[in-house]
Amino acid sequence: MTFDSLDSTNAALKRIVELEGDVHEGLMVWAATQTAGRGRQGRVWTSPRGNVYVSILVAAPPEIARAPEIGFVAAVAVQEAIFELPRHNAAEPKVSCKWPNDILINGEKVCGILPELATDDSKRSWVVLGIGINLQAVELNPSAYPPTALSLHGVDTTPAHVLTVLTRSLHKWLHHWREQGFAAIRKQWTGCGPAVGSTVAVGLPEGAVTGDFVGLDEDGALLLDTRKGKRRIVAGDVLFGATPDSPAGETVGD
Ligand code: BTN
């Protein structure tokens, strides 16, 4: 479904799931601009025209605690899609994954991902996968990272073309995830994530936590070696809030 303007593609797709029912995986809401675009942790996602604002419906796994894995599936799909877009300059940009679900180019944020849970009237759970990619317009969304746009890195494209490439890549990585489990996604994410031992800072409600990157745990949790000892930051809590399966004691935000 294509719209010129919406409050938020995530909000619109959630409404469709919760109020209209009869939905299916792959259902997509795309808007040219958003008036109330939302980011993680209640932040605003400013949404000028020229960029991609899309929400795609993905069936949640039977173990709902595994739903945050879909955010990582999306991150590796976006990372791969960016490489497949035509570029008119020779220099290959360094596209990297930032925990939990951001994509950076040369250290600047080009894409934010917001997975949200929704339940239809048959009590079936879905993940509304919201993806914002800067193509042309760069707006300073509240984030520790300065923003960038694909056009600044020689990528000349349109939202429609990005969506074609992205949905193909997402379909492929969802298939790998379902066939091979999170290990396949974790391997790909780790390949474009921070180097082991590099310093990683995560903004949390309690303040920033900085440590040496140890790795991504088997459920997507961030493992850091901080001055106060080892720290495990749970992706599920950051993306969806604490669930009975992810104890709130470990809860921290990004
Ligand atoms: C973040 O980095 O905080 C996540 C940003 C997610 C933005 C996208 S744009 C499309 C979808 N609709 C929204 O309201 N938000 C997401």
**Beta-strand percent range:** 25-35%
Helix percent reads 25-40%
Q: From N to C, what is the helix and strand string? A: EHEEHEEEEHHEEEEH
Q: Low-confidence runs (pLDDT<50, min 5 residues)?
A: 243-253
What is the residue-averaged pLDDT? 89
CATH architectural label of the largest domain: 2-Layer Sandwich
Number of discrete domains: 2
Q: CATH top level of the largest domain? A: Alpha Beta
Q: Which strand order does the major sheet show?
A: 1-2-3-7-6-5-4
Main beta sheet strand tally, sense and closure: 7 strands, mixed
Distance between the termini: 31 Å
CATH homologous superfamily heading of the largest domain: Bira Bifunctional Protein, Domain 2
Bound chemical compounds: biotin
Number of helices: 5
What is the fold-level CATH name, i.e. the topology of the largest domain? BirA Bifunctional Protein, domain 2
Radius of gyration, in angstroms, nearest whole number: 17 Å
